[in-house]
Amino acid sequence: MNKEHYIGIMSGTSLDGVDVILCEIDSNSCKLITSLEYPMPLELKSEILRVIEENCTLESLGEIDHRLGLLFTQAVGALLIRENIDPSGINAIGLHGQTLWHAPEGEYPFTMQLGDPNILAAKTGIPVVADFRRKDVALGGQGAPFAPAFHEFIFSNINSSVSVVNIGGMANITVLGDKLIGYDTGCGNVLLDMWIAEHQGKAYDENGEWASTGVVDYTLLDKMMSDDFFQEPYPKSTGREKFNNVWLQKYLSGHTHNPEDVQRTLLELTAMSISNEVLKFNPDITLLCGGGAKNTFLVERIKVLMPNVEVAISANADQIEAMTFAWLAYKRIHHQKVNLKDVTGASDNAVLGGIYV
Ligand SMILES: Nc1ncnc2c1ncn2[C@@H]1O[C@H](COP(=O)(O)OP(=O)(O)OP(=O)(O)O)[C@@H](O)[C@H]1O
Ligand SMILES: CC(=O)N[C@H]1[C@@H]2OC[C@@H](O2)[C@@H](O)[C@@H]1O[C@H](C)C(=O)O
């Protein structure tokens, strides 16, 4: 069987860094060979947040597209140099890009990922597959989440009923079965990160330590849990354009709260919005992945909220999203459709992504 080598690049909604992985892929398997986390410069992170949350000009968008193209190129270069890899041995790079805005519903649906793939292809000499999501949106789909198709590929050999939950900035669930189910459950770490940054100047609440000093405000929790997004049926997907400071302030306004109680309540919101969805499918096992799987207090709360489900941290928990995009590049290079229509609501499965050489 022919083994091929693909690089996957993911920079998610947390804006914490760029995950770069190298995989060996064939029609039956995807083996992680090595990975690297390349830091997102703080100034670029602030500029991206400013454009998303405050003020956007065409010039700022164009410059961010270029700067991200350079950043992804540096990240790939760092991996190739560290591992002493010749670029000619890489079949292609799967580049997710940085989501700036995701609006799959409405009169003119769109999803926007930036980071010019031409720069990456030109500077590395490696073919790049990018722009994965817009074909799905063109077919009437949500354009997200895509990881469920990869979860199906790597986890369907498990002989129990399985669900997979990625806890990134946003959180998404996959339920494996005859019909593949997957959708975003809502916020993952994004509100927790935002609140601790504002009150303690930290990028994230390590192991939920600050949250654990507060108490859950159940009135606030109930109000937030009654938000439309949590009530809507799937297919559904979301992003920073919804779960952001404006969203939080809407629920906080009119009351005074201790900051640590808000953090504790936000952690409970993440745990509850995830576990409510998992429990709808009653799986034997739930595999957690993404950065939130390292938050020991969050994982503890998820376990408490679903005592009859075995909760485990998945293999390669930090790399699965980047592996997804390496595998999607493999699918594109081989002109294979991706099994996502039941997840995203697209009218058909499709060959996803454009090739940049
Ligand atoms: N030890 C830890 N304790 C608490 N939280 C952690 C820990 N390690 C990572 N995190 C959280 O994980 C986040 C990063 O997760 P991840 O990289 O999976 O997100 P992402 O890929 O950017 O998001 P998305 O999946 O929505 O695109 C950090 O911002 C932080 O909130
Ligand atoms: C539009 C977008 O970038 N969505 C991300 C985000 O981060 C988690 C969740 O929201 C998921 O829908 C998706 O990412 C993963 C990689 C996915 O497509 O499965």
TrEMBL record:
InterPro entries attached to this UniProt entry: Anhydro_N_Ac-Mur_kinase, ATPase_NBD
This protein's pathway: Amino-sugar metabolism; 1,6-anhydro-N-acetylmuramate degradation; Cell wall biogenesis; peptidoglycan recycling
HAMAP family linked to this entry: AnhMurNAc_kinase
Enzyme class: transferase
Species in which this protein is naturally found: Sulfurovum xiamenensis
Binding site for ATP: 12-19
NCBIfam families from the UniProt entry: PRK09585.1-3
Keyword tRNA-binding: no
GO molecular function: kinase activity
Keywords annotated in UniProt: ATP-binding, Carbohydrate metabolism, Kinase, Nucleotide-binding, Transferase
Free-text function comment from the UniProt entry: Catalyzes the specific phosphorylation of 1,6-anhydro-N-acetylmuramic acid (anhMurNAc) with the simultaneous cleavage of the 1,6-anhydro ring, generating MurNAc-6-P. Is required for the utilization of anhMurNAc either imported from the medium or derived from its own cell wall murein, and thus plays a role in cell wall recycling.
Reactions listed under catalytic activity: 1,6-anhydro-N-acetyl-beta-muramate + ATP + H2O = N-acetyl-D-muramate 6-phosphate + ADP + H(+)
Protein name per its UniProtKB record: Anhydro-N-acetylmuramic acid kinase
Keyword flag ATP-binding: yes
Recorded family membership: Belongs to the anhydro-N-acetylmuramic acid kinase family.
